[in-house]
Specification:
The complex is a heterodimer of chains A (503) and B (469). Chain A is built from 21 helices and 2 strands. By secondary structure, chain A is mostly helical. In chain A, strands 1-2 form a two-stranded antiparallel ribbon. In chain A, α11 (245-270) packs antiparallel against α14 (327-358). Chain B has one domain (2-464). Chain B is 76% helix and 1% strand. In chain B, strands 1-2 form a two-stranded antiparallel ribbon. The radius of gyration of chain B is 21 Å and the shape is globular. The chains are: A mainly alpha (503), B mainly alpha (469).
């Protein structure tokens, strides 16, 4: 049994533990222990992976486990990881762990809340370790559906509307993905032989080009919906704004990365020729998304909406980088996913904590919070600086890599897109600094705020864990980017082979 | 003798129950419930012992490993319905009619068994009628209720009409081929105009039974009027059996004109799924809601039929199995709540989770399974149906069906929203259901959870479906 199976077993056991527990405290502590173990397993996986690579194991995927599931359809339970998925697993484990602490004061139906949350997490873990398209899709849907309950029951604002909109749009995306996967399956062996869902095997074949052209838009849009691709991003601001803190964290931090990862791992990897021919359409959409999200954030007054639009902008940047089809930009895309995952989780955690104290999310009603809650305020400034790409934090490393990579495409179209996308950095600075100024500095506008207390111990665990992640990547990015590069190799080679005249 | 084992066993227990019924005084009819369920369970278990395939009556009756499995599936479904009905049967107004319920149910089941095993159109027709007429009596079971009586009358009229149409089609087949045996008819099907007409009549007749659009108009009214357990029987067992034999006849008799009927099916599939879904969205009464949802599900099953292969047959049977468990769970919950409180509307379910969490969970699992959410069995069933249709190259059909799964998810979520998200001043009060209901629901939940993971079930169905097409 491979170590990866742990990432399925631990959540399942945790859920069973939660369901059999009696009190609120038991539920919380079982969740903490379960997800703490998961985090340890993720750190262990990263170390093991690095050790294996250092020992010279150059296999495309490591820690493989392959069990036949449905024999006649050739469906396997097939798991394995490369550098990219290891990084994503690390991100997920960190955000889920922080999310448990951020939802410490859930009062209503805590058992159901933590069950759904961990069910969602197990879907995400399963998605990142799967190498079989069938199981991958299974885990993808498993990750999406608990969102409905999480937002609908524990959310705020127009939660019923947001939950329904989010679920239907994401499931609509997954319908497209399903069509794409079935299409790939029936063309997975163009030279004869058994049909397969095996991602690695399919990547060695060349699917007929007309089939590729038919399937690529479905797969890219399908995953793009979850990756908040313009114009399919509209679920994201509503969903994030209505969701409870931990769910926003998990959703913006991890779940939206499923979209980017899927675009990269399934759409681009398996259909490289079509990606080259049709990529420009999605590149335009991604570029619009980058700018649109940033300007959207400038206009908003609700903290969660600001951050949700900022997520749209940053996630569009991920798709933008993937569509640049070169190693540097793709590396940047993965870095951006991880950096944005941690950073936005931190943002949403802080917003949740601030809202829990001030009972408002409108920035105009707040002010001078630095004086009453210095810990949270400082953490907010750190998150903001990371978001606008200050060197020393993870955001800088990621965006720098993306734009350097993007600029390697010398033709006018790519250059213009890059310049437009890069200008979003300025807009990002505008909305981040504006919020920091209004929210944290200045006079205290509301006398009730004088009695507000600073972060509790469980808030601090959550915040410190995430800040640690941001600075670790910001200060020492090389181990991570090396790890990612190892995983990117096969994909970039395949893309190069697909388009010999790649400028 | 052993060739007809399933039918003979059912006839035997029907006779036993009839004799027992005679000696029970009118006030003691409830005592028949437990023996009836135990006998049915015994028959279900005995059905799983490997039997001898073969033919009887010169080919009119044929028994293969496949038909035996189909009968087992139906037996399981009927057993669950028996168990779920106990709470309802024990009500005061039903106390004198309890044994009739079991006897009528068993005789329709016998009819379905003969229908599935039929080797010629005459046997098929006799089985079909035996399966249909007692159901009409069952639909009018609560005859003092106006709606129930109306449902019975509607059902009998519609059955008569569809049987007439079907029979007309069969007579044309006899007229053009000179035989009624499936094996003899099949090579003589050439696509001559009269045969096409015959096929259309046959198709329309079956479409009434399976309630495909545009032959579905009776469904919602009958489901709404009939007692919940009868509605669930209609939507699951009746429909399942009709789909099985429909697929078998299409594959073994009409395979030569597959080009024609696959086009018909293509259109009917789209219509059925879409119309079923669009109407389901607007329903308030849960029985009508489930009626339209089951119309849409029937459309999904056609995706497997149109697959025209071993894979297609497998997915049809597999999905029917999954559908039986999911739909019975949903109907079971609706039934027990209707018995205890008389409430059948979606907004009556507001806040149900706070008062009856276990029932709400079962309902949620059932609806998620019907919507095709992993890791529940419905996901696997739907996935395989799409695979079967895509194998024939029907990608656009699959896409339309996929879009429809989103619509269906919407209305299933409406019920889940009522139960879990909404709060109500007057939620359905907390009640404890009896052991029978719990057993029935537990069996359904076990099916919903396990069938997907246990790939051996799928493999078994696949192996038995060999050589049909």
């Amino acid at each position: 049994m491979s170590i990866l199976t742990l990432f399925i077993i631990i959540p399942v056991l945790t859920i069973l533990g939660i369901l059999s527990s009696k009190t609120h405290m038991q539920v919380k502590w079982i969740s903490v222990v379960g997800m703490g173990l998961q985090l340890l397993a993720a750190i262990g996986l990263i170390l093991l992976y690095l050790a294996e690579r250092r020992a010279g194991n150059m296999a495309e995927v490591l820690f493989v486990q392959d069990n036949v599931w449905y024999e006649t359809l050739n469906i396997h339970f097939y798991v394995g990881v490369d550098g990219v998925s290891v990084a994503m697993i690390g991100l997920t484990a960190l955000v889920v762990f922080a999310g448990i602490f951020a939802s410490w004061d859930i009062v209503d139906l805590p058992r159901e809340f933590f069950t759904s949350l961990i069910l969602l997490a197990s879907g995400v873990f399963g998605f990142f370790i799967s190498l079989d398209l069938f199981t991958m899709f299974l885990f993808y849907e498993l990750a999406v559906i608990p969102m409905y309950l999480l937002i609908g029951i524990w959310g705020s604002g127009p939660r019923h509307y947001s939950a329904m909109k989010l679920t239907l749009m994401l499931m609509g995306g997954s319908a497209f993905i399903l069509l794409g996967i079935i299409g790939i399956y029936f063309n997975s062996a163009p030279g004869g032989g058994p049909l397969t869902f095996d991602l690695i095997k399919i990547s060695k074949e060349t699917i007929p080009i007309d089939v590729q052209r038919f399937l690529f838009p479905f797969l890219f849009v399908g995953f793009g919906v979850l990756g908040a691709m313009f114009p399919f991003h509209t679920w994201s601001p509503d969903g994030h704004a209505s969701a409870p803190t931990a769910v926003s964290m998990l959703h913006a931090g991890v779940l939206m990365k499923l979209g980017g990862y899927g675009c990269y791992r399934v759409a681009v990897f398996l259909l490289p020729e079509a990606a080259h021919q049709l990529g420009w359409i999605f590149l335009i959409l991604a570029t619009i998304g980058v700018i649109y999200g940033a300007f959207g954030a400038v206009w908003q007054k609700d903290l969660k909406y600001i951050n949700a639009y900022s997520s749209v902008s940053h996630c569009a940047l991920v798709l933008f980088a993937i569509l640049m089809f070169n190693q540097t930009a793709m590396n940047g895309a993965i870095m951006q996913m991880i950096s944005h995952g941690i950073m936005t989780a931190l943002f949403f955690a802080l917003i949740g904590m601030i809202y829990g104290r001030t009972h408002t999310r409108y920035i105009n009603e707040m002010g001078g919070l630095m004086k009453v809650m210095p810990f949270l305020a400082v953490a907010y400034v750190i998150a903001g600086l990371a978001s606008l790409g200050l060197p020393g934090f993870s955001g800088f490393v990621a965006e720098m890599t993306i734009f350097v990579g993007a600029f390697q495409n010398v033709d006018t179209f790519h250059r213009v897109a890059t310049i437009i996308a890069a200008s979003s950095i300025v807009v990002t600075a505008v909305y981040v600094l504006r919020v920091v100024g209004i929210l944290l500095l200045g006079k205290i506008k509301n006398e009730h705020f004088e009695e507000i207390t600073d972060a509790k111990w469980y808030d601090k665990i959550s915040v410190v864990a995430l800040i640690f992640g941001i600075t670790l990547i910001g200060i020492a990015p090389l181990w991570l980017s090396d790890m990612i590069n190892g995983g990117l190799g096969p994909i970039v080679q395949r893309l190069l082979a697909a388009a010999p005249v790649l400028n | 003798m052993l060739i007809m084992r399933h039918e003979l066993l059912l006839i035997a227990i029907t006779v036993i129950l009839l004799i027992v019924e005679i000696f029970l005084p009118n006030t003691q009819k409830r005592k028949i419930i437990l023996p009836a369920i135990l006998l049915m369970a015994a028959v279900t278990i005995l059905g799983f012992f490997p039997g001898t395939p073969g033919i009887l009556f010169g080919g009119m009756f044929q028994s293969t490993a496949l038909t035996m499995m189909l009968k087992n599936i139906l037996n399981i479904g009927v057993l669950i319905i028996f168990i779920q009905s106990v709470d309802w049967l024990k009500q005061e107004q039903n106390k004198e009619k309890i044994s009739e319920f079991f006897l009528l149910m068993l005789s329709t089941l016998i009819g379905m068994n003969y229908m599935i095993s039929s080797g010629d159109f005459l046997m098929f027709y006799i089985g079909l009628e035996l399966a249909t007429i007692p159901v009409a009596a069952l639909a009018a079971y609560e005859r003092m209720k106006e709606k129930s009586a109306e449902a019975g009358v509607k059902l009998i009229f519609i059955s008569a009409l569809s049987s007439g149409i079907l029979l007309y089609g069969l007579s044309m087949i006899y007229g053009t081929t000179g035989t009624m045996y499936f094996t003899d008819v099949a090579p003589l099907i050439t696509g001559a105009p009269l045969q096409v007409l015959a096929f259309i009549f046959f198709f329309a007749g079956m479409a009434f039974k399976i309630s495909l659009v545009p032959f579905h108009l009776w469904t919602a009214d009958v489901y709404e009027g009939a007692p919940v357990n009868i509605a669930s029987y209609l939507s699951v067992i009746s429909k399942g059996a009709a789909v099985f034999i429909f697929t078998i006849i299409l594959y073994t008799v009409f395979y030569k004109i597959a080009v024609m009927w696959s086009e018909v099916l293509y259109g009917i599939t789209i219509l059925t799924i879409t119309v079923g879904n669009l109407f389901a969205m607007r329903q308030q009464n849960l029985k009508r809601f489930l009626a339209f949802s089951s119309i849409a599900q029937a459309g999904f099953i056609l995706l497997g039929v149109i697959g025209q292969s071993q894979l297609g047959m497998t997915t049809v049977i597999y999905f029917a199995l999954v559908y039986i468990f999911s739909n019975l769970a949903a109907f079971g919950v609706v039934g027990i709540i209707s018995n205890r409180t008389g409430k059948e509307n979606i907004n009556d379910y507001d806040g149900l989770y706070r008062t009856n969490p276990n029932l709400s969970l079962v309902m949620m699992l059932a609806l998620f399974s019907l919507a095709g959410i992993p890791p529940l069995a419905g996901f696997f069933g739907k996935f395989f149906l799409f695979t079967a249709a895509a194998k024939q190259g029907y990608y656009w059909l699959v896409l339309i069906a996929l879009v429809n799964t989103i619509i269906s998810l919407y209305y299933y979520l409406l019920v889940i929203k009522a139960m879990l998200l909404n709060n109500s001043d007057q939620p359905i009060a907390k009640f404890t259901s009896d052991g029978y209901t719990r057993t029935g629901l537990l069996m359904c939940v076990a099916g919903i959870v396990i069938i997907g993971f246990a790939s051996s079930i799928y493999e078994m169905v696949f192996n038995l479906s060999f050589g049909l097409y």
